[in-house]
Structures are given as C-alpha cells and as structure tokens.
Amino acid sequence: MPTSKRSRAVVLLSGGMDSCVCAALAARDHEAAAVHVSYGQRTEERERQSFLAICQRLKIHDKLMVRNEALRAIGGSALTDPNIAVPESAAIAHEIPVTYVPFRNAHFLSVAVSWAEVLGAEKIYIGAVEQDSSGYPDCRPAYYRAFNEVVKTGTKDGRIEIVTPLIGLRKAEIVTLGLELGAPFDLTWSCYSRVDQACGICESCVLRLRAFAAAGAQDPIPYLAPASSQV
Ligand SMILES: [Zn+2]
After folding, report:
1. How many CB atoms lie within 10 A of CB 225?
2. Would the pTM count as exceeding 0.70?
3. Residue range 13-34: average pLDDT?
4. Over pLDDT 70: what percentage of the chain?
5. Which residues pair with 125 in a beta bridge?
6. How far is the C-alpha of 107 from the C-alpha of 138, rounded, in Å?
7. N or C end of the chain: which has fewer CB within 10 A?
8. Which residues surround ligand 1, an ion (CB under 5 A)?
C-alpha cells in the first residue's frame, strides 16, 4: 500500500502484550499514531519505556505521552493506591479484582478520540480482551458499542470509530497472532507489581504465562523465577 495514501489510526499502547499486538495490527494497516497514558500506576516508568521501545520497533513516529493525575488522586485500585496490595493470581475470586482502575479506559479513550479528531484519524485501536481476562467491565464489547455512540454524537464529523480487534480472542490466540505479525513481545511489560523482572505471580503475569504456554511459545521477557514453575 502506498504510504502517502494510508489512512491514519490512533492506537492506545500501554506497553503490555495485548496493546503491542494491537499496535502491530494498526501499524500494518494504517499510518499509526500511538498514545500512552501514565496514571500513577506502580509500574508507570517501566511501561513508558516499553511504549517508546515498541513504537521504535514498529516504526510508529507519531507519539503522544500524557499524564492522568485524576486516576491516581482518586485511587481505589491496587495499581494506583500503595495501600492496596497487588494480589497473587490465586487469591482472585470470580469478581472484579482490586486491580481494576475505576472507569480507566474511558479516560484513555477520551484522550485518543480528542487526538484522532486533531490528526484526522478515523480509527482508534484498543487491545481490550474479554476472554481470559480479569473481568474488568470496561473490556466488554457492549461497552465499546456504547462508547462508539458517544464518539459519533460528540465529535465534529462523527466518523471516528473505536475498534477492538482482540476482544473476542483467547489470550493464546493473541500470542499466536502477535508472533505472525512480528509483534515485539520482548519489549513488552505486563507485570503489575515489579519493574526489574516480572513477578510471575500477579494475575497479569499468570494470564500472560498461561497464554504463551498454551500457544506453545516462549515468553521472551525475564521472570523472577523460571516461568515453567509459575504456570
Ligand atoms: Zn507480575
């Protein structure tokens, strides 16, 4: 596809494995621009590093890095409140876990929609996953359908659309897709609690390790303990 004719898309890139695959898809199909929101989460510095490295590998030149002070100030999540511990995966029951950041994705999407209006981008990619995920309410398909109504009603020409290419995939399928696309998993960071080596025991690490194992692939990032003993 000739570069000059490529349509623009904004991708929300946290630096985790799902958003990395999503960014690889966006960069394959569009002239992609990547947005990263820091919100006072425990691993924000490490995630920012991943964001920059992934953009470089995927040759995404348009980058927007912003801070959201509200989510940290509001707290109410193990990711933003140092007084709430990040639970081990085994401690998590069938309810929305304490790692849920209240209505976080709406903040992120709002930033992405504003930027898309300015750039003239008509697609916004977000790597929300419903299955094999933590059950966060802002990762459900119905939420994105409703949000798209808001975007249609609340933007200048009403043409921007949020797309969720991973939402119906199993986590292992996301790994397989990422490997096909050449997504730079080695540059990603998913751990909720550590920044030197991934802990291997928080829910995010466990979901990730299971996904790589189910896909028959080796997770290239470093873990505190051998990955095989953590799954
Ligand atoms: Zn972890």
Report:
1. 12
2. yes
3. 98
4. 94
5. 11, 163
6. 11
7. N
8. 191, 199, 202, 205
